[in-house]
Amino acid sequence: MEGPGKGVRRAPRLPMRRVQGQGPRGLLRAGGQGGPRPVEGPRSPLHGRRAGRGPQADRRGRLRRRDGGAQVRAGLPVPRGRGEGRMIRGVELRNFMSYEEALVPLGRGLNLICGPNGSGKSSILLAVSLVLGQAHTERSRRLADLVRRGKPEARVSLILDNAIGADRKLFPHRREDRLSVTRVLRSNGSYYYLVEGQPVTKAEVREAFARLGIFPDNMLIIMHQLMVHRFAAVPAQEKLRMLEEAVGLHGYRDDVLEALGRLRETGQEEKTLRAVLASTEQSYEFWRREFERYQRKKTLESRMRELDAELAWTRVAQGEGSAARLRARLGAAKDELASLERDAADADRRTESADATWAALKREREHLEKERLDAARREASTSAILGWTEEWERAVGGELPPTIRDARQRAAKDAGSAKAAFEELERRLADVERALDSGLPGLIEGRVDGRVLRFRAKMVGEEIHRIEGQLRSDLEELEALTAEAEKLGPRVTPRKVGEIHAEANAIKEELGPLAHLTDEVERMYGQHLESFETVRARAEALTEHRKGLEAELAKRGDKWRDVMERLLAEVSKDFDRLLHEAEGRGRIRLTSPANIEKSGLEILAGFRGQDAVPLESFTQSGGERSVAMTAFLLALQRRIASPFRAIDEFDVHLDPHNRELVSKMIVASTTGLGEVQYVAITPGTVSPPRGVSVIIVQNVAGAAAVGRLP
User: Fold this and answer.
1) How far is residue 488's CA from residue 28's CA, in Å, rounded to a whole number?
2) What is the predicted pLDDT for the residue at 66?
3) Are residues 47 and 103 in the same domain?
4) 33: CB partners within 8 A, 6+ apart
5) Is 170 in contact with 93 (CB distance < 8 Å)?
6) Strands 222-223, 644-648: parallel, antiparallel or unpaired by DSSP?
7) Alpha-carbon distance values, 143 to 147, 466, 651 (Å)
């Protein structure tokens, strides 16, 4: 069902000419008295005995399209056929979606179906698609959803001219000049076809329309809603594939890809065979050299035995050298131990002497400190006596008594001698303190040296023990090595072990591939020579075949490029002409034409005097891109051979200006198509030119109604 469209004006109710069979107000309304005309009943007014000559049919149908489209390939205009320019005379709908019963008459040339959103316009094209046999619809994948609610089945019919030429018919087994093709849809999802009321298969219907060049699954025959946007969204490579499919040129691509596939398969086969050939040649060369290598093997094995003996005696010599070095180390260690023990004894003696001196100095210091204390006391006593006599003298104010005076003199004399003695004691005590201070580091150093020497002597003793153990072990190993070497051969002058190992490793490396050699070499060589010659002949033949395929691929690729470039040149002309109607210019080109798998379709457009550039959001507005893409699809649509074409709601999401431009392009695209019948659906208001059939669709009381402008 159609939904509301933003920014789209509803079509006004226009005056309409009554069409035979319509209900009130000139509209064909569902549910009118008398009901719809049965398919098997009397003929509709659109049925007649005279039939115009329809478009030329393609008897090979799809096969001709796979052949590349003869008209497009030859660069000729698309055939227009002969007759009245009307393939479908009418569309009948009964209980189909929003329709109860309606007859939609279609005229020759351009038919414009207008109406507001949700009125049922797109349902008309959907009905046409269903009758033509389209694999799926844009509206629904379930046919049951297309039956009007509450009804057991729906019927959609196309009223057609059966005559498609002077002596050919659309349905050869029918004699009528005009007939109806009906598709009945049941609410359970099943369906069946009728031609003039008689059952036919879907395959028969599709085959009949194929005679006219109508392939319902071709996206260009009926361009459904949003197809412009969907086509614009796919990558350039997919656009090109869709174009090829639509115009019937995909057969050229299939030919190229088929050749490419065969070339890749052959290339892989050649690669595999070349690998087999390389392996066979390697085996052949291997066996050709085997006898020489077998003799070489014997020589190398003899040399290896000599090297084993030489290596054994070299190890004996190394063991002897190691034992000699250990003995030397043992002697040196014992000498060092004796020296350390002597030095430690000397250090102990020096420490004892220093300790005695230190003790004597400490005793002298204690003695001097005691004498200094006594001297200080004497000095204090004499100082006190002198002070007392001075105070007495001041108190009596005269001469002192002789006894006191004598005592004072003696005190003064004692004070001088006491002071001198005190100073002498101070000096001697300082000397002792300095001696103690200077002797302390030597005392400490002597004690440390003694301990270090004793520790080193201990370590050397342990080293002597280890060396003696290692020497015993090495002598035992040396004895075993000597016995082993004597078994291998007489003693030789030893070389460096590295030199012997280098020579032995080189011999072992050379002996590795020779280990399997036997006297079967000559017989195996003959067999591998024969195999090598056979595989080489096959590989050369396959290489020639691959070169032939490469030439064929190049030829088909050139043909594909030639056809595509000519087609795109013609489409580009129409594209540019249509864009002129929209005040623009445009062209189409093939990208990466040398690689069909990467090749794509690039669409370029420019507006308002601008150069044509690829379509993208940075260079064109959304409306301009939609206009350009619509112009391209319309130009491409002109290249198909179908006598019926349609586009649904081409102006959805377009502003009024762009809608008018696209309308002009549609009219321009239908110009010069002869009898091709075209249907365009729009929800907007347009100004159709003279000669365009305008059909109005509205929803009245929940049912779609159809009318035609006078």
Assistant:
1) 120
2) 37
3) yes
4) none
5) no
6) parallel
7) 7, 101, 27
Backbone dihedral region for residue 245 (phi beyond 0: left; psi -120 to 50: alpha; all else: beta): alpha
pLDDT at 524: 86
Say yes or no: 278 and 354 in one domain. Answer: no
Same domain? 453 vs 353: yes
Residues 6+ apart with CB under 8 A from 279: none
Calpha distance 17→707 (Å, rounded): 7
How many CB atoms sit inside 10 A of residue 71's CB?
19
Q: Using alpha carbons, select from 630, 652, 639 the residue that is nearest to residue 578.
A: 630
Helix axis angle for 121-132 and 202-210, nearest 10°, is 100
Percent of the chain scored above 90 by pLDDT? 13
3-state helix, strand, coil in the chain (%, to 5): 55, 15, 30
Residues 547 and 405 in one domain: no
Collapse the DSSP code of 89 into the 3-class scheme (helix H, G, I; strand E, B; otherwise coil) and give the result.
strand
Strand, helix or coil for residue 134: coil
CA 80 to chain centre: 49
pTM above 0.85, yes or no: no
* CATH code, 75: 3.40.50.300
| d(C-alpha 632, C-alpha 627), whole Å | 9
Query: What are the tokens at 645?
Result: 């074409």
Distance of CA 514 to the CA centre of its chain: 49
Place of tokens 């001088």: 416
Are residues 294 and 281 both part of a single domain?
no
User: Can you tell me the distance from the alpha carbon of 610 to that of 414, in angstroms, rounded to the nearest whole number?
Assistant: 133
The CATH number of residue 300's host domain is 1.10.287.2610
Q: Is the pLDDT of residue 16 over 80?
A: no
Domain boundary among 443, 476, 505: 505
Residues 645 and 354: their CA atoms lie apart, in Å, by 128
Residue 403: inside a domain, yes or no? yes
**What sign for the dihedral angle of Cα 260, 266, 270, 272?**
positive
Tokens read off for 27: 């509209």
In the block, residue with structure tokens 């929003």: 98
Please write the tens of the pLDDT for every residue from 530-586: 898 899 999 999 999 999 999 998 999 999 999 989 999 998 998 898 888 888 889
Pick from 18, 172, 148: nearest CA to 696: 18
* Residue 511 lies inside a defined structural domain of this protein: no
Q: 54, 57, 52: which is closest to 641 by C-alpha?
A: 57
What φ, ψ does residue 200 adopt, rounded to 5°?
-140, 165
Pair 301, 403 in one domain:
yes
Give how far the C-alpha of residue 237 lies from the chain's centroid of Cα atoms, to the nearest Å. Answer: 19
Verify that 377 and 424 share a domain, yes or no. yes
Domain interval for residue 283: 272-288+519-554
Q: Distance between CA atoms of 193 and 199, rounded to whole angstroms?
A: 6
Number of folded domains in the chain?
A: 3
Which residue's structure tokens are 């030829």? 555
Residues 6+ apart with CB under 8 A from 162: 51, 169, 170, 171, 174, 176, 177, 178, 179
Which sign does the torsion angle of CA 297, 301, 306, 308 carry? positive
Distance CA 527, CA 9 (A): 89
Handedness of CA 60, 66, 72, 75 (dihedral sign): negative
Q: Which residues contact 101 (CB under 8 A, 6 or more apart)?
A: 28, 29, 30, 31, 32, 35, 36, 93, 94, 95
In tens, the pLDDT along 382-410 reads: 777 767 666 766 666 656 666 666 666 67
Among residues 651, 623, 647, the alpha carbon closest in space to that of 636 is found at 647
Together in a domain, 280 and 336: no
Would 458 be classed as within a structural domain?
yes
Of 60, 240, 264, 219, whose CA–CA distance to 129 is shortest? 219
CB 178 within 8 A of CB 160: yes
Say if 594 falls within a structural domain.
no
Q: What is the pLDDT of residue 53?
A: 33
